[in-house]
Amino acid sequence: MRKQLVDFIILIILYIFIFYKKWKAKGNDVLFTNTIMYIYLSFVLYFTLMPIVTSLPFILNHPYTPMNLIPFVDVISGRGDFIRQIVLNVIMTVPFGFLFPLVKKSKAKLFKTIFYTFLLSFGIEILQPLIDGGRSSDITDLITNVVGGMIGYLIYLIFKPLAFKILDYIKNK
Question: How confident is the model at residue 140, as a pLDDT?
């Protein structure tokens, strides 16, 4: 946890001195949605990549393990706790699929949300073994993360009218 503390301090400093002022100037609704997304992404970083800053000097001290490109190989071979991993990977990106269109003020359609969910997941999967030689990346994680983003987007569609009523209330407060 100590190593992650450096990353969290940097995230807090970035929020206070860069993002808060920028988002506050755009209104309370933008500040609210962007702050929720920032907090969510900070937790994604915590569970997938941290510690980052304290790992930077050691990035080249271990071999890079390429991504496993056989989808659902753990499921097919019955290895490990594949059901738990699949469920957690789906759950991890459901909030992104819901929040992304709110941050983009409904300009984000399904395919744009899927694309950005893919980019988020791809970035994580490429960086994981680079930052920590003990971590690996897997195409199954990429697929299940995108499915999670799609589910989040569908939840967004269901709750879109309510979400925008709440944001209008926050904006006018």
Answer: 95
